[in-house]
Amino acid sequence: MKQKKNWYDYLWIVSLTYLILGFFNILFAWLGLLCFFIPLLIAIIKGSKAYCNKYCGRGQLFSLVGGRFGLSRRKDIPKWMKSSWFRYGFLIFFFVMFFQMLWNTYLVFAGTKNVSMAVTLLWTFRLPWHWAYHGTFFSSGVTQFAFGFYSVMLTSTVLGFLTMLLFKPRSWCVYCPMGTMTQLICRAKHVTSSQKS
Questions:
Q1: Cα 120 to chain center, whole Å?
Q2: pLDDT tens across 164-189, in order?
Q3: Which of 13, 29, 77, 180 is the most exposed place for a label (fewest CB within 10 A)?
Q4: Per-residue pLDDT averaged across 48-57, rounded?
Q5: What are phi and psi of 120, to 5 degrees?
Q6: How do 118-121 and 125-128 pair as beta strands?
């Protein structure tokens, strides 16, 4: 019997739409903040990883492309990628890159740096992205943040697709920084609640 689909089973469309919108207008990159705050809020309020398990459109996209369309080798992810040192190390690295992006945004807001109309893929390759900027009523710092944040989102998506191709469809979820952060929050919340009881 075919399992009935829920509304959240189609959130992969949101993830795909986000990437497409950012390709045509970089200011849509700001919408990606929802993918940062919603998982954290669910973890803090509910103490669960419901976002990762149910609502993550990116994970669904990897499942669809790698699973249903068969573009995954379906191999187990290596043990070292599952290890705590790798996941926490990647989280720290991710934070360093994220704060570097925020620093560049601050410099543009402060007027000491011009907007860089480029997307940095895999934190290394600068891709010209000028066609996606059409001007704005806001400060140029708003634009710089959009370019930086879209770089983060595109990079994590590319990494997700690479691990999907090499291993199981949702292998990215094993070391996803948001997943690691929500897991830490859930553990801390569980420890706190067990100490109170």
A1: 15
A2: 999 999 999 999 999 999 999 999 98
A3: 13
A4: 94
A5: -95, 110
A6: antiparallel
